[in-house]
Amino acid sequence: MNSSLLLSAATFIYALASVFYIGSFSFKKQALARFGFWVIVIGLVANTCGILLRWLESYHMGYGHAPFSNMYESLVFFSWTAAALYVFVECKYKESIIGVFVSPLIFLGIAYASFDPSITSKITPLIPALKSNWLIAHVITCFLGYAGFALAFGFSFMYFIKPKEAGARSLFAKLPEWDIIDELTYQMIVFGFLFLTIGIITGSVWANSAWGKYWSWDPKETWSLITWFIYAIFLHLRLMRGWHGKKLAVVSIIGFLGVLFTYFGVNFFLSGLHSYA
């Protein structure tokens, strides 16, 4: 057994969890959602073991670095953070139906890493600038922030599909109450915002140690800052202006589009110090 096999298994397990959650939503069968939760927990265990084994494999190959150094590893870690955060949220709120809006995101992250032919799963040595303990702190905090934003993005769609008056037989009758949707979205964005802030700070310290300056307006730095401001606007509108509901959901969705461009757009369309492509 090697890390690639474990992570491939985690990919298919997350896919199965998504099928259970979507089936629960479509057929209004709560039992399917309960199966989906335990399947996603199994996927999280496989994902965890795969990351740890990959870390160990890098030591055996003589590289000895945390598995956060390329696009494959970062996408695998994103799925892990999103799955771990989702498991916590479902245990806290007991609203299993929300899994239908999150489990596909968890699956798509690791599936893209596993199946895109342009992404290699090969373990490679770090370039000198990445040989720093700040790498672990920076990547972990940034991706915890991304996980919070991903969950908020999924939850935001509930605002647009939950009718104001849902009949007992409606497909949308099992969606959480409006105040729960609002609280879930807000808490995930607060979580994501705090960790993204820490990620930007640790990244600045790392940049100073690697390149001699805290900020260089690298494309990923710039877009991370833009994303930070979008979520800062979200928090301002909610806390100071009293916004709720669909208007804030739109800001949440725009914010996650900023996250996606920060990660994928910068890697593929812009060149810089952070580019994986």
From TrEMBL:
Q: What keywords does the record list, in alphabetical order?
A: Cytochrome c-type biogenesis, Membrane, Thylakoid, Transmembrane, Transmembrane helix
The keyword Cell inner membrane belongs to this UniProt entry's keyword annotation: no
Taxonomy, superkingdom: Bacteria
An example of a Gene Ontology BP annotation on this entry? cytochrome complex assembly
Q: Known InterPro entries for this protein?
A: Cyt_c_assembly (IPR002541), Cyt_c_biogenesis_CcmC (IPR003557), Cyt_c_biogenesis_CcsA (IPR017562), Cyt_c_biogenesis_CcsA/CcmC (IPR045062)
Q: Name one GO cellular component term.
A: plasma membrane
**Segments crossing the lipid bilayer:** 6-23, 35-56, 71-89, 96-115, 135-161, 184-207, 222-239, 248-270
Instruction: List locations, semicolon-separated.
Output: Membrane
Q: How does it sit in the membrane?
A: Multi-pass membrane protein
**Which terms does the record give in the GO molecular function aspect?**
heme binding; heme transmembrane transporter activity
Where's it mainly located?
Answer: membrane
Question: Is Transmembrane found in the keyword set?
Answer: yes
Which residue intervals define the domain Cytochrome c assembly protein in the entry? 69-274
The Swiss-Prot or TrEMBL record describes its family as follows: Belongs to the CcmC/CycZ/HelC family.
Q: Sum up the protein's function in the record's words.
A: Required for the export of heme to the periplasm for the biogenesis of c-type cytochromes.
Q: What is this protein called?
A: Heme exporter protein C
